[in-house]
Amino acid sequence: MDIVVFGAGALGSLVGGALAGKHAVTLVGRDPHVARIREDGLRISGELDALVHPEATTDPAGLVADLALVTVKAYDTAEAAEALADGDVDLVCSLQNGLTEGTLRERLGDRVLAGTATYGAELVDPGHVRCTGLGRIHVGELDDGGSDRAERVAAAFRAAELDCEADPAMARRRWEKLAVNAGINAVTALAGVENGALAGPPGARTAERAARETARVARAEGVDLTDDDAVTALRDVVDETAANRSSMYQDVRAGRRTEVEAINGAVVDLGRANAVATPTNGTLAELVRTWEAARDLRPPDAD
Ligand SMILES: NC(=O)c1ccc[n+]([C@@H]2O[C@H](COP(=O)([O-])OP(=O)(O)OC[C@H]3O[C@@H](n4cnc5c(N)ncnc54)[C@H](O)[C@@H]3O)[C@@H](O)[C@H]2O)c1
Ligand SMILES: CC(C)(CO)[C@@H](O)C(=O)[O-]
């Protein structure tokens, strides 16, 4: 399978590098990471160990592939969609956090599949990505139901020894992951703590309120996710990733823009559209925005 990975950062390099052992993979990213891959190959260390030589480019024009994986940060999704629309890709699958498939579908139509990834990846140096945790990838139709194309994508991932399954209930899975991110990411980023700090009060209270709010919005959007489902998923991830720093915590520590708009912000926006109150998500979003604004990390048109 010819695969383009659009957004060769931590997750894109890990997944794209793993796929490169079995498929024709082109990583689309930026220098110096791309330059080093072109020179010396891509080193994968940590829970996975490989040295692979995928194609790598900084040029997003004219991409042709059977499958394009989108692994840019949520706030770069529209740009990725534009670039892919100018190319010739048969299928697109996001592995991003947050609700980004709508932005992709606006530009790319029904070529877009939904995806979630719980592998942990960290870019160590240009040309070197570390797998910080094995996980699972789920792919499927945005509007639920199984499909041959989702099964084909999952089989391609499994052929490269990635843990992947096609999920006929991706809407529920995407919202469950959103509830987990809405609960963990902002609280750990603002409090400066690893995920395990949310195993009990006081952090658990705020995290679980945010997760319950997200479940209520999910149900208003027609997705069958109970408050208990959301809290159980949150508690399981807190337990499984107790020693991890969430991606938003890592972004804040590095002084980078966060994905708060695609996580807590998206919950608030969709809550408003469905007349569902989301006070905890609203407060978390405003606090992270305050941090971003103090460092000029917010886009000029942001409210
Ligand atoms: N890192 C993880 O462990 C992990 C796990 C699960 C989900 N995710 C999600 O995956 C997504 C990516 O996360 P990440 O940690 O890999 O972020 P990252 O910042 O390491 O990678 C994104 C990469 O995309 C590149 N990029 C953005 N726009 C581009 C463009 N127009 N052309 C070329 N390159 C472009 C950036 O330069 C960057 O290297 C996020 O939504 C994140 O929440 C990450
Ligand atoms: C599941 C998760 C919250 C674990 O840290 C991860 O999605 C992240 O860090 O964004």
From TrEMBL:
<comment type="function">
    <text>Catalyzes the NADPH-dependent reduction of ketopantoate into pantoic acid.</text>
</comment>
<dbReference type="GO" id="GO:0008677">
    <property type="term" value="F:2-dehydropantoate 2-reductase activity"/>
</dbReference>
<dbReference type="GO" id="GO:0050661">
    <property type="term" value="F:NADP binding"/>
</dbReference>
<comment type="pathway">
    <text>Cofactor biosynthesis; coenzyme A biosynthesis.</text>
</comment>
<keyword id="KW-0560">Oxidoreductase</keyword>
<keyword id="KW-0173">Coenzyme A biosynthesis</keyword>
<dbReference type="InterPro" id="IPR013332">
    <property type="entry name" value="KPR_N"/>
</dbReference>
<feature type="domain" description="Ketopantoate reductase N-terminal">
    <location>
        <begin position="3"/>
        <end position="143"/>
    </location>
</feature>
<dbReference type="InterPro" id="IPR036291">
    <property type="entry name" value="NAD(P)-bd_dom_sf"/>
</dbReference>
<comment type="function">
    <text>Catalyzes the NAD(P)H-dependent reduction of ketopantoate into pantoic acid.</text>
</comment>
<dbReference type="GO" id="GO:0005737">
    <property type="term" value="C:cytoplasm"/>
</dbReference>
<dbReference type="InterPro" id="IPR008927">
    <property type="entry name" value="6-PGluconate_DH-like_C_sf"/>
</dbReference>
<dbReference type="InterPro" id="IPR050838">
    <property type="entry name" value="Ketopantoate_reductase"/>
</dbReference>
<dbReference type="InterPro" id="IPR003710">
    <property type="entry name" value="ApbA"/>
</dbReference>
<keyword id="KW-0521">NADP</keyword>
<protein>
    <recommendedName>
        <fullName>2-dehydropantoate 2-reductase</fullName>
        <ecNumber>1.1.1.169</ecNumber>
    </recommendedName>
</protein>
<comment type="similarity">
    <text>Belongs to the ketopantoate reductase family.</text>
</comment>
<feature type="domain" description="Ketopantoate reductase C-terminal">
    <location>
        <begin position="171"/>
        <end position="290"/>
    </location>
</feature>
<dbReference type="GO" id="GO:0015940">
    <property type="term" value="P:pantothenate biosynthetic process"/>
</dbReference>
<dbReference type="Pfam" id="PF02558">
    <property type="entry name" value="ApbA"/>
</dbReference>
<dbReference type="Pfam" id="PF08546">
    <property type="entry name" value="ApbA_C"/>
</dbReference>
<dbReference type="InterPro" id="IPR013752">
    <property type="entry name" value="KPA_reductase"/>
</dbReference>
<dbReference type="InterPro" id="IPR013328">
    <property type="entry name" value="6PGD_dom2"/>
</dbReference>
<dbReference type="GO" id="GO:0015937">
    <property type="term" value="P:coenzyme A biosynthetic process"/>
</dbReference>
